[in-house]
Structures are given as structure tokens and as C-alpha cells.
Amino acid sequence: TLRKAMGHPARDPKGCMALRAARQQPRGRGGGVSNPTLAQLAQQERTRREILHKSDLIPPLPDVVIRVLRLLDRPDTEPAQLESCLCFDQVLVAKMLGMVNSPFYGLRHPVGTVREAIMVLGFRGLRSLILATSAAKFLARDFRCYGFADRGLWLHSITVAAGARLLARRTGADAELGEQLFVAGLLHDIGKMLLAPYLTERRATVPPGAPGLEVERAVAGIDHTEAGALVAAKWNITPLVQEVVKLHHTADVGSASEREACIVQAADRVANALGFGHAPGVRAEPIEAADAVLGRLGIAPDDRAAVRAELAEAMERAVATMTAVTG
Questions:
Q1: d(CA 22, CA 7)
Q2: Pair 224, 216: CB distance under 8 Å
Q3: Distance (Å, rounded) from C-alpha 225 to C-alpha 243?
Q4: What pLDDT shows up at residue 35?
């Protein structure tokens, strides 16, 4: 099951769940009301179970994307096999070539065929590009309950992905880890796709930049980090990405993926500070809010302003590219 894949126990006694939900109730407009009734606790538990156990709530990736990702997981896959598979979806191919020829990838010579794109990007880069293209339709939905403008969560996600890749390189990560963190940045808020309908129905809101975990738990009994890890598991994304998605707000000290989660958390804070995807009038947190996380990554105080500027530039390029390519 998905719960087993994410390392959760198969069952949670109702008494423990009720106590947990009661502890997690937010206070005031920042998150809801205290002292929930038994009926509210029961509704939280029903919603949580619905999300955890009804895997059909998680939309599948397109068939072509699933086949390509499976091929990319096999050590004996040849570029010709990927090309044959991709050619069944010309819309995907057009978007892929548009992205690979954009300033976002910074190639010196134009790429005109799928085979060339595969050879230039390599299998790691192809995976990131395919997922970025496919995730657009899931992240471009109505997320006004989270304070995002039209297609705002998509723009926010692609900026975090670009920032995470840059920070990975800046902190000495290899290309493989850099691409995994690009995917983790892209999908870090994918759990909001599952929770937005519940928040909208209850007229609950979470401002961008605020984790909002307590609000989500009060409404649905689950927050977007746990829900996002479930989506990543359903899509067969690597365990590292699943873990980073789950930890990107907490980046628990001592966890196996602490450093990787810090990279995505820092990129997330910079993207929120710059307001990418936010609805008009939504106040962003100061960009210096990322400094504490940058410090945990070993970036010296005197270097942090320069790193923030690099991140801002990379994020602006990502927005320009994705807006031009995906419309």
C-alpha cells in the first residue's frame, strides 16, 4: 500500500488519531478554531482515510510518461527505444523540444529531434524534463485557497526546481543528485493538489510562504507534505525525492535526507520571498528568511546575498522559459 511504501503503519488506533488531531488544531485566523468537537475530529479522520486509502484520488501520469520513466529505470535502455516511445505523443515532444531549446537549458546549438534531445540531455536530464512537462497540468489548477494566482503554483514550483538545482551545484552535489533535487523542487507542493478541494469546500486559506500544515491537518487530517509523498510514491518517483517532499518544511536534523531537504527548503523560501506565482496583494516574507537554511548548507554569511541573487536570476529565467513554452 501507499502507507507502507511511505513507512507509515498500516493502522492508527482511533484514540491516538483523535488525540493527534486535537493537538494539531490551529488557533485563530492563522489556522482555525481550538477545541474541536467529536464530529470535527471524526470528519478529519474520514477525510484522512479517504486520501490515504483511495489511490484513485491521485491522478496517474500519462501512459507515455509512465513508459518512458520505466525505460529510464532500466540499465539496458537504448536512446532509440526512448525515441520510439516518445514519438507517440507529439504534443509532449513539441513541449520537450521547446524547453530543451530555451535559455533555461542554455545549449549552444539548437536541438531539432528527440534523438538529439536525448543525446544532449542524457537520461537524467530527460527524466527531469519529462516530469516538468507532465506536472504542468497538475500544478496549473485552481490553488487560490493557497494564495496563488492563475497557474501560480506551477510557476512557484518551477522556480523552486530551478533554485534547488542551482543550490545543489553550488554546494558540491553531483549531476545525479542535482537532477533529483530539481524533481523534488518541482514536486515539493504537489500534495496541495489533493488538499485544495477540501480547503476550498471549508473556505480555509493558507497564505503563500506560510507552511499551513496545521490548517491542512485541521481540515483534512493530513498536510501537503505527507500527501505529496503519497503522490510521489504513486508516480514511482525515487525514494529520495519522496523523503525530501515530506521533509521540505521541517528538514529534520539528523534525518538521512536532511541536507537535500534543506536545499529545497532554501529554494522554496527564496521563491516565496520573490512572490513567484502569488496572487496580487499577497505579502511575501523577506528574502533574508532563507539565510538560516543557507547557513545550514555551509554558505558563509558574507556569501549569502550573492547566492540569493544567483537564485533570483535562475528563477526568473525559469519563469520566462516555462511561460513561453507551456503558455
A1: 23
A2: yes
A3: 9
A4: 58
Q: Which amino acid is at 50?
A: E
Of 137, 131, 133, the C-alpha closest to 321 is 133
Cβ atoms < 10 Å from Cβ of 281: 6
- CA dist 44 and 33 (Å) reads 14
User: What confidence score (pLDDT) does residue 172 get?
Assistant: 92
Cell, residue 115 = 534523438
How many residues in the chain? 327
Q: Which of 138, 142, 247, 232 is nearest to 183 (CA)?
A: 232
Torsion sign across C-alpha atoms 233, 239, 245, 250: positive
Quickly count: other Cβ atoms within 10 Å of residue 125's Cβ.
Answer: 18
C-alpha grid cell, residue 315:
528563477
Window from 14-23, 75-84, 158-167, 289-298 with minimum mean pLDDT: 14-23
**Residue 144 corresponds to which cell in the numbers above?**
487560490
Q: Give the C-alpha distances (Å, rounded to integers) separating 61 from 43, 58, 99, 222.
A: 30, 9, 19, 23
**Which residue would you say has higher pLDDT here, 82 or 55?**
82
Query: Which has more confidence, 128 or 164?
Result: 164
Residues 6+ apart with CB under 8 A from 311: 163, 166, 167, 267, 270
Q: Which of 107, 110, 140, 108 is nearest to 125 (CA)?
A: 107
Q: Are 216 and 146 a contacting pair, CB within 8 Å?
A: no
Per-residue model confidence as pLDDT tens digits over 5-41:
333 434 444 334 333 433 344 433 344 444 567 877 7
Q: How far apart are CA 222 and CA 48, in angstroms?
A: 6
In DSSP terms, 32 is beta-bridged to 28
Which residues, 6+ apart, have CB-to-CB distance to 298 below 8 Å? Answer: 171
Query: Which set of grid coordinates corresponds to residue 71?
Result: 525505460
